[in-house]
Design goal:
By secondary structure, this protein is mainly alpha-helical. Helix content is 53%, strand content 5%. It contains 7 helices and 3 strands, in the order αααααααβββ. A 3-stranded antiparallel β-sheet has the order 1-2-3, with no helix packed on it. The protein starts with a helix and ends in a 6-residue tail after the last strand.
Length: 184
């Protein structure tokens, strides 16, 4: 007999959040792992009619196949889901050793990037108010990530040399960006 789906998901998610916080993972990682694990648990309970604990590695492979073939996610998205499920299996369910069959790999044509023309960029900037306009100009002109832009302080800008220094950026590294011409 299957447990109540919503109650089972909530129980497992609470245990997952506790394990993630004990492991000291980032909040963004927690959000991502919870998202994928909720989808996996729902898939197991509703599609496979079994609990994720008893689903074994066949359930993981079936979910990854579903993502690749039916949801048509990218390969990196499929790997992200796999990492979340492996964390769930090891840290919450306590299964340390398991082997996953090679799932169907996500394929699909890469979409060309959408690039705005200079006029379109100017129109976007014209319709933004402060401080969002400044943030958009900095990100567009220098290639800053959103989180890097939001964490900027005055001390990070070297206006004489035209450089922005990002401390503790992606990967815990220090990055240097060229300050856009409008700021020099």
């Amino acid at each position: 007999p299957l447990p109540e789906t919503k109650a089972e998901i909530e129980r497992i998610v609470e245990a997952l959040r506790r394990a993630i916080r004990l492991a000291g993972l980032a909040y963004a990682t927690e959000q991502t792992y919870v998202h994928w694990c909720v989808r996996f648990i729902s898939f197991c309970l509703q599609q496979l009619r079994q609990t994720p604990q008893t689903g074994s590695t066949a359930a993981i492979t079936a979910f990854l196949d579903y993502l690749a073939l039916e949801s048509r996610v990218s390969h990196s998205t499929q790997k992200q889901a796999l990492n979340a499920i492996v964390f769930l299996t090891r840290k919450v369910f306590g299964i340390q050793e398991f082997t996953i069959e090679k799932p169907a790999t996500a394929t699909g044509g890469r979409r060309p990037p959408v690039v705005l023309s200079r006029g379109e960029v100017a129109a976007v900037f014209a319709n933004l108010g402060q401080p969002w306009k400044l943030a958009a100009q900095l990100m567009y002109g220098s290639g800053l990530r959103v989180i890097e832009c939001m964490r900027l302080r005055v001390k990070d800008g070297d206006f004489d040399q035209g450089i922005i220094t990002i401390h503790d950026g992606k990967g815990g590294k220090q990055h240097l960006y060229i300050l856009p011409l409008i700021f020099t």
